[in-house]
Write a structure and sequence with these properties.
CATH architecture: 3-Layer(aba) Sandwich
Oligomer: single chain
Strand content: 15-25%
Distance between the termini: 40 Å
Order of helices and strands: EHEHEEHEH
CATH superfamily: HUPs
């Protein structure tokens, strides 16, 4: 199975890890996971403290540590579509907040005569205070990458 997902993955946290783990689970042992890593105009409204190469290395380090059996590729994306409207994928893994983008991707795929992607939505991972873990909250020193209150 060919699975895709995307994100900024800044302040790499427990929620990111869950998203990536789910993508590898859905792909299966002989599958392939394509990870779109935000770049360019997708970063304009983000206070991204780490450059693309650093974020890519953080992703690779986690994936290799977890010893997932699926193959993977990390590539830059500059819009919500990335390669999803030109390449063949079977599924897209998203968090609650990104499900609307997955639906937009499927609308565009339909316009182009492509089959829709199976959308796998995972719930937000919550911090100890019951609110979602996010890079913004980590940047604001509210929580750490594991969701502990600071």
């Amino acid at each position: 199975m060919r699975v895709c997902l995307g994100g900024t993955f800044d302040n790499f946290h427990k929620g990111h890890k869950k998203l990536i783990s789910e993508a590898f689970r859905v792909a299966g042992v002989k599958g392939f996971v394509f990870i779109g890593l935000s770049d360019g105009k997708l970063l304009e409204n983000k206070k991204n403290g780490k450059n693309w190469q650093i974020r890519k290395k953080n992703l690779e380090k986690f994936i290799l540590k977890e010893n997932y059996q699926s193959n993977f590729e990390i590539f830059p994306i500059t819009d919500i579509y990335g390669p999803t409207i030109v390449e063949d994928f079977d599924a897209i893994v998203v968090s609650n907040g990104s499900e609307k983008n997955a639906r937009k991707i499927n609308e565009k795929r339909k316009e182009l005569g492509k089959k829709p992607l199976r959308i796998v939505t995972i719930p937000y991972v919550l911090a100890k205070d019951g609110k979602p873990i996010s890079s913004t909250r980590i940047r604001n020193n509210e929580i750490d990458e594991e969701g502990n209150i600071l």
